[in-house]
Design brief:
Length: 227
């Protein structure tokens, strides 16, 4: 059972998120919060596996709440709920250690998939969020889109061939277990490769590495991801 906390200042949104998550018998919403302060307090009390946080909340916004959760309860993965036009917030949350990004207007199954993914140790960037993050980075970064793509490719070129394979699957949102099955290796080997990838790319988490993979155009070969 994956234990989930939901935080949003709008009761209707919280009710909707809870309703969607309740359709999966493997997910259990153990607490709800109406602002960032309450979210941090309830995370420390309930120690959920995943905290689903709205970005814009009173008293303490979702980005600051995510950073406090990651510092005080590192075993709780954070998923950010976003709306269009919040690209700067998304980038700040990425730097703060959020593992997943979901659009409120996205399909319900994406919410369930995202929560399950980050609970299993994977990064989850909804396709629309990933595209917006990369587009925002390329539009605002030094050298423009071509420069950022070139920089990403240079960083990826420093990886070993096996690490590039792992990065391609990581960028597709796969967990360590799924990557291990795709590459026919043990999960511990994948975990070691992921640690090395993060260090070589100079990023702090899997979601940031996924962005680099998207920028560099690194994609896995076609094939079933498996459960």
């Amino acid at each position: 059972m994956i234990r989930v906390l939901v935080a949003d200042d709008e009761p209707m949104i919280r009710a909707g998120v809870r309703a969607v998550l309740s359709t999966d018998p493997g997910l259990d919403v153990v607490a709800e919060a109406g602002d960032g302060d309450e979210a941090v307090e309830l995370v420390l009390r309930h120690r959920p596996d995943v905290a689903v946080l709205d970005i814009r909340m009173p008293r303490l916004n979702g980005i600051e709440a995510a950073a406090r959760v990651r510092a005080a309860a590192p075993d709780t993965a954070v998923v950010m709920l976003t709306t269009f036009g919040e690209d700067d917030y998304i980038l700040r949350a990425l730097s703060g250690g959020a593992a997943g990004f979901l659009v409120k207007s996205g399909p319900p199954e994406e919410l369930i998939a995202g929560v399950r993914a980050v609970a299993g140790g994977a990064a989850w960037l909804s396709p629309s969020v990933a595209a917006r993050v990369v587009a925002h980075l390329t539009a605002t970064g030094a050298g423009g889109a071509a420069g950022r793509r070139a920089t990403a490719r240079e960083r990826v070129a420093a990886l070993t061939a096996r690490e590039r394979d792992v990065l391609s699957h990581l960028g597709a949102g796969l967990s360590n277990g799924q990557i291990a099955r795709r590459l026919h290796v043990v999960e511990g080997t994948v975990k070691a490769h992921v640690s090395s990838i993060l260090a070589r790319l100079g990023v702090d988490n899997r979601a940031a590495a996924a962005v680099v993979a998207h920028e560099a155009g690194v994609t896995p070969p076609p094939g079933p991801a498996g459960p």
